[in-house]
Design goal:
Number of helices: 19
CATH architecture of the largest domain: 3-Layer(aba) Sandwich
Radius of gyration: 26 Å
CATH topology of the largest domain: Rossmann fold
Number of strands: 14
Oligomer: single chain
Distance between the termini: 27 Å
Length: 458
């Protein structure tokens, strides 16, 4: 099993006191951190190693932070998030670097807790050493619902042999199944085999599931293993199991109960040892009531159930994944795109009926077709479907049982929290959207008890 990897930070700081403080604090927070004392040393390290986050002082004795960033971007290198530490007199330089693609800057003297929060948001811990195939990350999002599922995966992988995942198409059911598989204590190179039961006709599905012997039907020129045999020792993912016929459900039930299959045209029982993960976008309970899904099969696969909520129910994840998909596109095209504030609001206000799959394809299409590095709503939607870019109104009625000051405080708190979510908890962008300074935003967050660990981690 692959071991969890903590994010690794490249710190470039010549000040011994500042460097030691950051090194010790990030170490206590669980990050792996490498401290480089000069710009050239840091530049060399970045060229030879992968980092999840770079934190660099702008003023360095040999090669300052801006020069490092300029050299790396000139090479069209895909950089991890880059945070600059700057004094008051260098804020204009830091703002210029933000426009060139830096993630953020923080002014001295700064609140170390906020820098740590920023680091957690920009490079969340990767649960596994290998990236997931579907969405380029093993982290399922930042919403409380998905963080809860993420936390349950190690235990499910260890103890559950049969799991049912429900959710709309494109919500990420197979992605979750792959994470469970990779976290399980399989033998090395254990297979993960997936089949969409709804994409195969009934006449072929039996052969796909259980295999066939040579000559068992026209065209069967040689014996072939089905997915149950192919997945032996690993994980079998049966997607859209609700699309199977009652006749096929009988055969599936027998194979799942006995962990034995017989190939089409064969007679020899073949034992199979698989972790079974089934998925559906249909209401199987209702199908049982309508006699279109066998009750015994339903209870056989409904041992552990995970519901993947649709993207519209976890708005926090929309911008998180949109930024992830932008970075994935940049890796391929070596072109950086950013979202305009109206585009961010449009993405947040859209229902995403196709969920993550639709969002990923929309971002890819926008990056391919747009010649402007700043993506507007029109890059994602045509004129007929572009959603509203206005801020949602969450204060339609005042609370009559509170004082005016209490009500205004709660309005301010909700408005700031809403803006933070829309801006992916990027403090600089949030401050700009609110029309206040970054320092003013931090002061308000403290005053109003808004903390990233409460609202992001769930």
């Amino acid at each position: 099993m692959n071991k969890p990897l903590k994010p690794i930070i490249c710190l470039i700081e010549d000040d011994e006191i500042m460097g030691e403080s950051l090194y010790d604090r990030f170490g206590l927070e669980g990050f792996r951190i490498e401290w480089h004392h000069t710009g050239l040393e840091g530049l060399s390290a970045i060229g030879n190693k992968h980092y999840d986050l770079i934190i660099s002082d702008i003023h360095l004795p040999d090669l300052d932070g801006e020069d490092i960033f300029a050299r790396l971007t000139a090479e069209k290198r895909h950089l991890p998030p880059f945070i600059f530490i700057t004094g008051y007199g260098s804020i204009d330089r830091a703002v210029r670097l933000l426009k060139l693609g830096a993630a953020d800057y923080i002014s001295k003297p700064f609140d170390l807790d906020l820098l740590v929060e920023k680091a957690h948001l920009l490079c969340p811990e990767q649960l596994y050493s290998a990236p997931a195939e579907d969405y380029g990350t093993d982290t399922l999002g930042i919403s409380p619902a998905m963080r809860g599922i993420e936390r349950s995966i190690p235990r499910l992988a260890k103890l559950a042999s049969t799991i049912l995942i429900t959710g709309e198409s494109g919500a990420g059911k197979e992605h979750v199944a792959k994470l469970i598989h990779r976290h399980a204590r399989h033998e090395r190179n254990a297979p993960f085999v997936a089949i969409n039961c709804g994409a195969v006709t009934e006449s072929l599905l039996e052969s796909e599931l259980f295999g066939h012997e040579k000559g068992s039907f026209t065209g069967a020129a040689k014996a072939r293993k089905g997915v149950f045999e192919q997945a032996h020792g690993g994980t079998l993912f049966l997607d859209e199991i609700g699309e199977t016929t009652l006749n096929m459900q009988v055969k599936l039930l027998r194979a799942i109960q006995e962990r034995v299959i017989v190939r089409v045209g064969g007679e020899t029982p073949i034992p199979v040892d698989v972790r079974l993960i089934c998925a559906t976008n249909r209401d199987l309970k209702k199908m049982v009531e309508e006699n279109t899904f066998r009750e015994d099969l339903y209870y056989r696969i409904h041992v552990i159930r995970l519901r993947i909520p649709p993207l519209r129910e976890r708005k926090e994840d929309i911008m998180w994944f949109a930024q992830l998909f932008l970075r994935m596109c940049a890796e391929v095209s070596h072109e950086n795109h950013v979202l305009s504030p109206p585009a961010e609001r449009a993405l947040l206000n859209y229902d995403w009926p196709g969920n993550l799959r639709e969002l990923k394809h929309s971002v890819e299409r926008a990056c391919i077709l747009s010649t402007n590095p700043m993506l507007d709503p029109e890059a994602f939607f045509d004129d007929a479907t572009v959603p509203s870019t206005s801020q949602p109104d969450e204060h339609e009625s005042a609370a009559t049982d509170s004082t005016l000051n209490e009500y205004l405080r709660e309005c301010e708190r909700k408005y700031i929290l809403q803006s933070l979510v829309q801006n992916h908890w990027h403090y600089g962008n949030t401050a700009n959207a609110l029309g206040i300074s970054r320092k003013n935003l931090w002061e308000k967050m403290k005053k109003l008890d808004i903390h990233a660990d409460k609202h992001v981690e769930g």
